[in-house]
Specification:
With 427 residues, this protein is an alpha/beta fold. The protein has a single domain, classed as Alpha-Beta Complex (Amidase signature (AS) enzymes). The chain is 35% helix and 14% strand. The protein has helices at 18-30, 39-54, 97-104, 147-154, 171-177, 211-222, 256-260, 275-308, 314-321, 328-345, 374-379, 383-388, 416-423; strands at 34-37, 66-70, 108-113, 160-165, 180-183, 203-208, 244-247, 268-271, 354-358, 391-397, 405-411. It has an 11-stranded mixed sheet, with helices on both faces. It is globular and about 55 Å long. This is Amidase. Residues 19-420 form the Amidase domain. InterPro entries: Amidase (IPR000120), Amidase_dom (IPR023631), AS_sf (IPR036928).
């Protein structure tokens, strides 16, 4: 796996290292994580990178870093399959801006990744390509919807991947597969060229095996100070400074391993002052999320669904159908309630910099343990921060036993860089 600084190009310098591409393809096959290898695009951009190097230009911030793209995000020249049989196989005419920005910084797209059909489902159990296999343990649920992107990072095939997150679809697969998963503040990352699920909550997110690389990629996407690579030895170095307050109200009392993360951070105050307020928020936001998501998803799909309902995955079709009879007037009222809730919720951060929560409610489920309550447990701590629009990061816990364990660090809206810098002190 690339170290986050050196391009994975061969000595001839005319194509992406064949071994690197073969490793991605091997992992894609083994874990059913890849819908298409993007070799032509990878080789063309690698040739451009080599030409820049040979002409004496300084390396860009992500020069030669391979990355994967969830297959609801457009990459020019390749179909966007949405993990569905209900699709056009025509190649995309343009890439999504989030892809363009990574490529402009030197990153190399190597694969489109398998996902829950149309991103509609947190378990990752329904795709026209079959479900993704968890590299940690094939018996464990991968979660979704960005299952394949998480799997390629977890398998060590790529250090960086794009996903989307509407109720936890980056952070929950990251927790189930033992990698970093970041959902930026709502609206910070452009969603043009990304097939929507629920536009009120949709966010493009990032998976990475290294927090520094994830942070560098985020800076590139939202517009960092420099496109050039940091000096060797200083690459992706982050530090946080000053006294911080972390609220752990949502952590169960026995989450000692999660609390241990905080022990090494100087000038840190740990509080549980927001327990009642957070409990009230969780109660208030779930109905708002459910109505808006059902309404918007049906509106997104209604034309396709009218013609091809039988070709959708059964569980996805059922979810889409559930939004059919919801009225626009009530939808407008729910949007107003959402705006009021987002404004009211900011009071949580009056004396708190960050929240530390579980990533999911309970252990990562095995596929044979999935029941009617599993999806709600997976979304228990992730979905609220899509509703509120706050930044949130899944942090894997080391030495977690036979099932991955993770926590979620949450920051106020717009605090993305501050959150990532503080997280760098924890890992």
């Amino acid at each position: 796996m690339n170290d986050g600084q050196s391009p994975p190009m061969d000595r001839r310098g005319d194509q992406m290292d064949e071994h690197s591409l073969a490793e991605v393809e091997r992992a894609g096959t083994q874990f059913n994580a890849v819908t298409a290898m993007t070799v032509d695009r990878a080789n063309a951009l690698t040739a451009e990178s080599v030409e820049r190097r040979d002409s004496g230009q300084p390396p860009r911030r992500l020069e030669g870093i391979p990355f994967a793209i969830k297959d609801v995000i457009d990459l020019v020249g390749y179909p966007t399959t949405m993990g569905s049989n209900v699709r056009s196989d025509a190649p995309a005419a343009n890439s999504a801006p989030v892809v363009d920005r990574l490529e402009a910084a030197g990153a190399i797209p190597v694969a489109k990744t398998n996902c829950q059909e149309y991103s509609y489902g947190i378990l990752g159990d329904e795709s026209a390509f079959g479900r993704v296999v968890n590299p940690v343990d094939a018996a464990l649920c991968t979660a979704g919807s960005s299952s394949g992107s998480a799997a390629l990072v977890a398998a060590g095939a790529v250090p960086l991947a794009l996903g989307t997150d509407t109720a936890g679809s980056v952070r929950v697969p990251a927790a189930c597969q033992g990698v970093f998963g970041f959902k930026p503040t709502f609206g910070v990352v452009p969603v043009d060229g990304v097939f929507p699920l629920s536009p009120a909550f949709d966010t493009v997110g990032l998976f990475a095996s290294d927090l520094g690389l994830l942070t560098a990629a985020f800076d590139v996407i939202v517009g960092g100070d420099s496109d050039e690579a940091p000096d060797q030895g200083e690459a992706f170095d982050l530090t946080g400074s000053g006294e911080r307050t972390v609220d752990v109200s949502l952590l169960p009392g026995d989450e000692n391993r999660a609390r241990d993360l905080l022990m090494s951070v100087p000038d840190l105050m740990v509080t549980s002052a927001n327990g009642q307020v957070m409990g009230e928020l969780l109660d208030d936001l779930a109905p708002i999320y459910d109505f808006i998501r059902l309404y918007e998803a049906f509106e997104v799909h209604k034309d396709l669904f009218a013609k091809h309902s039988a070709d959708y995955q059964p569980g996805v079709a059922k979810k889409i159908e559930s939004g059919r009879n919801l009225g626009e007037a009530e939808y407008r009222r729910q949007l107003d309630a959402l705006a009021e809730l987002r404004e009211r919720s900011l009071a949580v951060f009056g004396g708190t910099d960050f929240l530390l929560t579980p990533a999911i409610d309970g252990p990562v489920a095995r596929w044979d343990e999935i029941d009617s309550g599993t999806a709600a447990k997976f979304m228990r701590y992730s979905m609220p921060f899509n509703v509120l629009g706050w930044s949130a990061l899944t942090i894997p816990l080391p030495g977690a036993g036979d099932r991955p364990q993770a926590v979620q660090l949450v920051g106020r809206p717009g605090s993305d860089r501050d959150l990532l810098a503080f997280a760098s002190q924890l890992v």
